[in-house]
Design a protein that fits this description.
Elements (H helix, E strand, L loop, with lengths): L6 E8 L7 H17 L4 E3 L19 H13 L9 H10 L2 E10 L2 E9 L5 E6 L20 E5 L2 E7 L6 H9 L2 E7 L7 H14 L3 E5 L2 E2 L19 E8 L5 E7 L3 E8 H10 L23
Parallel strand pairs: 1-2, 2-3, 7-8, 8-9
Antiparallel strand pairs: 1-13, 3-4, 4-5, 6-7, 9-11, 10-11, 11-12
Helix pairs in contact: 1-3
Length: 304
């Protein structure tokens, strides 16, 4: 358990999704939340698009029958942010006084979005962000976010922010996050092995430049987790996700080193004093800022 209000116990939920099944996915998430609550976790972060699962199939030939199968499956299964199937998550957050950072395929009309949801410890939706730019073959599935919904919520140790996958590769997206002076940042990714060095660099750089903790959540996955075995396609290896969830501290060191190839909670206790100590070295919203030289405008964002 945490010692006092200077500390926050957090975790990345490195588990395989219930692929293309929202109801079973929510049931599994609630079980993970129960487990995390038993270990004193106060903020739990799930991987990118964990609800329904990351669309590993989107890199198939778009004319293939398997591609059409998964496209229709996802379009038919996805829901809105107020989908009643998600209500058990809100109830679990409230029951345990736990903050949750989720990522879903959000359906709005005929369009899907890659969306990050921040559920507060009271069981209320406190933040909703649509990924600004779908990456690579994600563009065949997801629409672009509008840019007016950056997530920033408060906690007992300071502000919490979040971004999805390659939003961390957009320098001005990171700069926007920095303006909110985060103490904790939720970084949600898929489990592709080729991303391992990119994610390692991104997570530690963000932790350093913003003097914040970064919870990096990634999934484990392979073709054996699919019910629709006949729709896998010819390359079962495309479904492979290796995990790699980790928790970085201000200063770019790891509190919890990346974990690969297994399902587990990756847990760490965050000490707010580490943020203050690193700000002595670099504070991009304080003594290391140069507003006389650089200007930054977040054009679309408007706080409530």
């Amino acid at each position: 358990m945490t010692i006092d209000d200077n500390f926050l116990r957090v975790a990345a939920a490195q588990f395989s999704p219930e692929y293309a099944d929202m109801v079973r996915g929510v049931e599994k998430a609630v079980a993970i939340i129960e487990d995390a609550a038993g270990q004193g976790v106060e903020l739990l972060v799930f991987p990118e698009l964990w609800f329904l699962g990351y669309p590993y199939w989107a890199s198939m030939d778009t004319r293939a029958s398997a591609y059409e199968f998964w496209l229709q499956k996802f379009l038919n299964t996805a829901g809105s942010i107020d989908d009643p199937r998600l209500l058990p998550l809100y109830a679990a957050a409230k029951k345990h006084g736990m903050m949750l950072s989720m990522s879903i395929h959000e359906r709005m009309g005929g369009t899907l979005y890659n969306s990050l949801l921040m559920i507060g410890a009271t069981g209320n939706l406190e933040g909703h962000h649509r990924k600004l730019m779908p990456t690579n073959t994600e563009r065949l599935l997801h629409g672009q976010g509008q840019g007016d919904d950056f997530v920033v919520v408060s906690s007992k140790i300071g502000n919490i922010t979040g971004l999805l996958c390659f939003e961390h590769q957009m320098p001005l997206s990171r700069a926007a996050v920095g303006t909110f002076r985060p103490v904790v940042h939720c970084a949600q990714w898929p489990g592709h092995a080729f991303l391992n060095p990119i994610i390692d660099a991104s997570v530690r750089q963000l932790a350093h430049e913003n003097s914040c903790f970064v919870i990096s959540a990634r999934e484990v996955m392979d073709a054996t987790f699919l019910d629709a075995q006949d729709a896998i396609g010819t390359d079962a290896g495309r479904w492979k996700a290796v995990g790699g969830s980790a928790i970085a501290a201000p200063g770019a060191t790891y509190l919890a080193e990346p974990v690969f190839e297994k399902e587990q909670l990756v847990i760490a206790d965050l000490d707010q004093d580490l943020v203050r100590q690193n700000h002595y070295l670099i504070d991009n919203q304080g003594h290391y800022a140069r507003p006389d030289v650089f200007g930054f405008e977040l054009k679309q964002y408007s706080a409530d």
